[in-house]
Amino acid sequence: MASATDEKADTVCPVARSVDVVGDRWTILVLRELYMGATRFEEIQIQTEATPQMMASRLKALEADGMVERQPYSDKPLRYEYRLTDKGWAFHPVIYALRAWGEIWCKDTDEEVAMHFVHRECGHDVGLANVCPHCGKPVERKDLDGSMGNDYATERAARRASFTRK
Question: Is the full-model pTM beyond 0.85?
Fold first, then answer.
């Protein structure tokens, strides 16, 4: 995976250049966790199931590319949390689109939706859309309240419990 300090794609193609920044599974999963509110290394690692080395390299690359910034939350020992920058938040529609595509094409029909998003303004579930089907307004992440489906919440709780037992 390339970062701001590595060589970039030798092209003017914006897709190829974007893949340089976010083009692997681990980076996408790190970003998913940041969008879900995780800020600390361990909480991101638990839910992505990445190795510490993989996590560190992805977070450093995202920081170098201006997608996240580190902010200290403890002086002794020095510990950092990770916050999305405006550039990082601007990528959210891509993750939201991946979610919608995955819900339609990568799941069995009897599986529940992993994440539900409710439009704060009108109180209706937006389903997989980026326009509220009830009021017709376009929605962004800041306009939505998210909640996990039961199966997804159970899966995430099991990862957390498994990690704390290690």
Answer: yes
